[in-house]
Amino acid sequence: MHISEGVLRPEIIIPTSVAAVCLAGYFLWRLKSDEIVRTAAMSAVFFMGSFIHVPLGITSIHLMLSGLVGVFAGKNAFLAILIALIFQGLLFGFGGFSVLGLNALMLGLPAILGAVFARHLERKINWFLAGFVPIFISAVILSVVLLLNGEGFEALSGVVLASNAVLMVIEGFISFFAIGFILKVKPELLNVK
Fold first, then answer.
1. Taking a C-beta distance cutoff of 8 angstroms, is the pair 115, 77 a contact?
2. Residues in a beta bridge with 61
3. CA 35, CA 46: separation in Å to the nearest integer?
4. HSE of 82, CA atoms in CB hemisphere, 13 A
5. What is the pTM of this model?
6. Per residue in 112-142, pLDDT tens?
7. CB 166 within 8 A of CB 139
8. I need a labelling partner for 82 at 20 to 30 A (CA). Which of 27, 41, 71, 153 fits?
9. Which of 68, 62, 78 has its CA nearest to residue 130?
């Protein structure tokens, strides 16, 4: 669900980059030393999750696990995803650095919703929604950004939203089973702040 280099206009790239830098600074300022290991581990989960590709007709989608990152990292999910995006850009050329701010906002902010659902894990539907909702919001943001980018992107905007519908459901079920398992074996891991 990355946006690649050279696709977006500067009117979109510049403000989103400024907003991402400001948010990263804020979250770094609020980061406590005992949260660093968990944030780094969730960054690795996001990084590795994107290498799992799911065939979808003639194309494929890849996992993001951003909801699970939010469940485990809480408010630091934004930092975890930003760090993973930086490494994906450096090592593999995924996304790119001019669009890093937008990609971080598009994937990192919805991931924080995982922490919201983690506060109400007594309801099993929230286990599913913790994975489903962040992907849904990220797909909507991506579609809106493509619409704002100008002519020629309207059709792509709808295709992006439709193709990610399958990913939303897959991530919902992954979250459902992962949270259920963790609640049985080590529930204190889910105590996010």
1. yes
2. 54
3. 17
4. 23
5. 0.91
6. 987 888 778 788 899 999 999 999 999 999 9
7. no
8. 153
9. 68
Give per-residue pLDDT as tens, 62-113. 889 999 999 999 999 999 999 999 999 899 877 778 999 999 999 999 999 8
- Whole-number Å distance between alpha carbons of 50 and 33: 27
The pLDDT assigned to 111 comes to: 94
Structure-token match 């579609």, residue found: 143
Q: What is the 3-state secondary structure (H, E, C) of the chain?
A: CCCCCCCCCHHHHHHHHHHHHHHHHHHHHHCCHHHHHHHHHHHHHHHHHCCCEEEECCEEEECCCHHHHHHHHHHHHHHHHHHHHHHHHHHHCCCCCCCHHHHHHHHHHHHCHHHHHHCCCCCHHHHHHHHHHHHHHHHHHHHHHHHHCCCCCHHHHHHHHHHHHHHHHHHHHHHHHHHHHHHHHCHHHHCCC
Cα–Cα distance for residue pair 59/132, rounded to 1 Å:
21
How far apart (Å, rounded) are the C-alpha atoms in residues 83 and 68? 16
